[in-house]
Amino acid sequence: VQLQASGGGLVQAGGYLRLSCAASGRTLSAYTVGWFRHAPGKEREFVAVFPPVTWSGGSTRYADSVKGRFTLSRDNAKNTVYLQMNSLKPEDTAVYYCAARTYIGIPIAPESYDIWGQGTLVTVSS
């Protein structure tokens, strides 16, 4: 499966954006799909993860820093996962990546994901 992230941009604090992770080649709903972000001078960090639709071993997970503000959703017909980001803060500024994992589980470590899309830049101004 190949992934393409889009939807980034410049937004004021308190605003919102919706990122998309579109897949080609395979059905994305069969994969664990995660979002990560990488801010300058920081390590790549976990944002949210979606388990495969057929897996009952866990549910959507969010980083504490985005819980209540960010929401994952999927459109299986479009083979796309979305990350709705509300109440954005300057500290949310980063390059956001979507990633997929071919094995079961909903890990939060970036190294647990073996398929990555290119990043999309989100800039939140104060």
Sheet with the most strands, sense and barrel status: 7 strands, mixed
Assess the beta-strand content as a share of residues.
over 45%
The average pLDDT is 94
**What is the gyration radius calculated from CA atoms?**
14 Å
Elements, N to C (H/E):
EEEEEEEEEEE
Which descriptor suits the 3D outline? Answer: globular
Question: Approximately how much helix is present in the residues?
Answer: under 10%
The DSSP helix count reads 0
Overview of the molecule:
The protein is mostly beta strands and 126 residues long. It has no helices and eleven strands. It has strands at 2-6, 9-12, 17-24, 32-38, 45-50, 61-62, 70-75, 80-85, 94-101, 115-116, 120-125. The strands form two sheets. Strands 2, 4, 5, 6, 9, 10 and 11 form a seven-stranded mixed beta sheet that branches. Strands 1-3-8-7 form a four-stranded antiparallel beta sheet, with no helix packed on it. Strand 4 (32-38) and strand 5 form a beta hairpin. It is globular, with a radius of gyration of 14 Å. The termini are far apart. The mean pLDDT is 94.
